Amino acid sequence: MPDPIRPIRNAAKALIIRNNHLLVITKRDANGVWYLLPGGGQKHGETLEQALLRECLEEIGAAVKVNNLVFVREFIGKNHLEDCTDVEWCKLVHSIDFIFACSIADDYILGNGTLPDEGQEKVEWLPIAELHKYRIYPSPLKDLLINQIYNKVYLGDVN
Question: What is the three-state SS of 56-104?
Fold first, then answer.
C-alpha cells in the first residue's frame, strides 16, 4: 500500500549573528543537548516573513528585522532515521526551511518568548568559531558560518 500523501511543511528560520556569535534555541533529547535556529512553521495565509516574526516573538521574546534569504534547507526525515530520536516522526516529516539573515535589537536580553517550542530550554549565543563543538541543526551551517560561505544557498536534504 502506498504512503498517504502528506504536505510539505514550510518553515522560516532566523540566522542572527552578533559579535561572532550565533543566536540559537537549546533543546535536549535522549542524546543530550542540541541547538537550532529560532523560527518555525508557516501557517496558511501567512508570508514567510510574517511566520518568522511571529515565531521569534514566541520563541526568543523579541522582534527581529528580517533581511535577505541566505539558505534553504530541505529535510526528508526518512532519509535521516539514523540521526532521529523519534523515528516515527522522522518517517513522516518533509520540511523546507527558509533561513533568513536577521538582526535583533542591541539591548536584547536572552530569554524564552511567550510560547516557546516544546522542549525548549533556553536561548543562547554560541561562538561561531567553536560551532563544531555543538550539535546544531541544520548541521552544514557549522562549516558555512565558520568559513563565511554564503554563496551556497540550497543546502540540500540535510540534517
Answer: HHHHHCCCEEEEEEEEEEEEEHHHHHHHCCCHHHHHHCEEEEEEEEEEE
